[in-house]
Amino acid sequence: MNIKNCPKCGKIFSPVGGSLICKDCIRAEEQEFERVRDYLRENRGADINIVSEETGVSTKKILKYLRDGRLEITDGMGDFLKCEKCGVSIRSGQYCRSCAEKVSKNLSSVLIPENRDEAPPKAKMHIKKR
Length: 130
Ligand SMILES: [Zn+2]
Ligand SMILES: [Zn+2]
Hints:
By secondary structure, the chain is mainly α. It has helices at residues 23-42, 48-55, 59-67, 97-106, and strands at 4-5, 12-13.
């Protein structure tokens, strides 16, 4: 059996589905995320620094949620999240829409969403025309 030391708490665990940290730490992270999400639900447009203060979750982590597309910037939060290619301000993810399209054309294999359950096996990537 594949066994690892959790880099966060040092506990020994067996990684499932390529997870890097143990279940307890995943749950703790999940709870942090939910705190931020719930806070934002009740305080739309709260400044990221205030969100961080109120939830005890670091701004770095909140930014990561945004980069991962798990959270979206609401109106009034400011435009601190920028497209990594062209620098235009975005609400969520890494790239603005047009860069994301370009990137996904070039790097489709890299950008397949991590959502393993939903990705049908061997499906060909195609871009829908709108
Ligand atoms: Zn752990
Ligand atoms: Zn861009």
